[in-house]
Amino acid sequence: MHVTPEAPPVELIMINITGEDKPGVTAALSEILAKYDARILDIGQADIHHNLTLGILIKTDSSVSGDIMKDVLFKGYELKVNVKFSPVSPEDYERWVDMQGKNRWIITILGRNLSARHIALVSSVVADQQLNIDSIQRLTGRMPLDSHEKQLSKSCVQFSVRGNPRDHSEMQRRFMQIASLEEVDISLQEDTMFRRCRRLVCFDMDSTLIRTEVIDELAERAGVGAQVRAITERAMRGEIDFIESFTERVALLKGLDESVMKEIAENLPITEGVDRMMTVLKRTGYKTAILSGGFTYFGNYLKQRFGFDYVYANDLEIVDGKLTGRYLGEVVDGRRKAELLRLLAQVENLNIKQTIAVGDGANDLPMLSTAGLGIAFHAKPKVKAASDQSISTIGLDGILYFLGFKDSFISE
Q: Which DSSP category does 276 fall into?
């Protein structure tokens, strides 16, 4: 009677390699594993300041596991790296495999300077929610020891975590609390397919792309600055209806010479990071739009200067070279901004979850809540409190980090 010999039992072995990073380490070790036909179940590598951390989880026959460990140890000695082996039970491995069904979240911490305290506070929230940190990645460039432009510095770290939060609302609340107290920005996004393929970014203009309200600039030239600013502030805080406030403010501009608009446009104070942000977004194929309760004249100026694809704003009526105090067409208010966002998504053949909206005022809230990713930018307290994502510490190029861009990619 012929008896088929039993196959040797398999072993799961975790190999951890640490030491000075140098070319050829991964290649040399994987060649040994290939020689013994070991199956790599997982592999990960990180390099921090020329220090290598490499982890390889393998499945192999017990008949050759000793030879594999011996050869890897000798090669590690030759390469001057440290090698550690740890057995993994099939039960532990199956639990790890089961984690694939859990949600993945991206947590982005952004600010002028990040400290160990910021990392500790965020990590504590993650632990309290019983989530596992898969990876931590620095997205910003390497910081010099002595920066001469600290006021313009930026630092960003991204956590990739897995699991289902015990209380998503509480997690978001704690992140907002930390951000407020520690002067950092914290973004929590579910890592879905839509987060990775967003394609349309819609911006408010006044106090977002530019550091002013154009209607206030026009009012100053018309000698009604104080009156218009007071109405603007009430509107941005959501205290009065936008269309009503817009009509009142435009009426106060009656008689202003249209040449003033050109002078204002050429001296608009551009928000920090706009040029860098637009360069990257255009290079990577994003469509961009200005959806503004301001004026088309200034939106078109920014479109020409930075390459926006769309501009929707309000047109001032001009007769004989003078503003009449009236406007033309439908007012672009909060409702209209959200409507335009949906329309542009359809035009570009995008799912609404692939869109991003950025703004600062109460009239931006409808489009922020409609977009797949709504970001309150240096926003009024009411707007920030009503938004899941916000940037309050750096310029508009901070949006790039919320999208997962690294400085090393941006500079290519």
A: H
Q: How far apart are CA 133 and CA 130, in angstroms?
A: 10
- Measure Cα distances from 256 to 215, 221, 300, 316 in Å: 12, 8, 20, 11
Q: Residue 133 pairs with which residues in a beta bridge?
A: 161
| C-beta of residue 357 within 8 angstroms of C-beta of residue 329 | no
The structure tokens listed for 193 are 């397919």
Identify the residue whose tokens are 């956590």: 159
Catalytic residue list: 204, 206
Q: What count of other Cβ atoms lies within 10 Å of the Cβ of residue 227?
A: 14
Q: What angle do CA 281, 286, 288 make, to 5 degrees?
A: 85
Q: What is the pLDDT of residues 162-210, one digit of tens each?
A: 988 999 999 999 999 999 999 999 999 999 888 889 999 999 999 999 9
Which structure tokens are listed for 38?
Answer: 């070991």
Listing DSSP states for 140-205 in one string gives SPPPPSS-TTGGG--EEEEEEEES--S-HHHHHHHHHHHHHHHT-EEEEEE--TTGGG--EEEE--
